[in-house]
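Moderator note: this is an archived Q&A kept for reference. The question asked for a predicted structure of one protein chain; the sequence and the answer are reproduced below.
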Amino acid sequence: MPQVGANTPEVLFRAVVANHADLELAPGRGFGSGTLRVNGKIFASLSKGRLLLKLPERVVDLLIESNQGERFTTGVNRAKKEWVTIGASDAATWIALSQQARAYAQRGQR
């Protein structure tokens, strides 16, 4: 049974959403339970108990190499270069990464 205040994915994602309180949490369509968007672009979501983020490919690669993340896939051989999932860790980590993802989405770069 989870402890009260434990760093469950749901608790951590609520902290991420609260950090981006100026944005509306949109219903998830294929991306999990809800999505955070800026300029109409998804940059964060909770998917299968992991934080899903859109970040520059080089950042995604670094997160994977450091065992902090896993590349997001939409099926066999359908890995997304700019999408990574992060396991439950702590709110500060999830918030910092979500801020990077938001800044990336705001720049509108691919």
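Archived answer notes: The domain at 9-107 is CATH 3.90.1150.30 (Aspartate Aminotransferase, domain 1).
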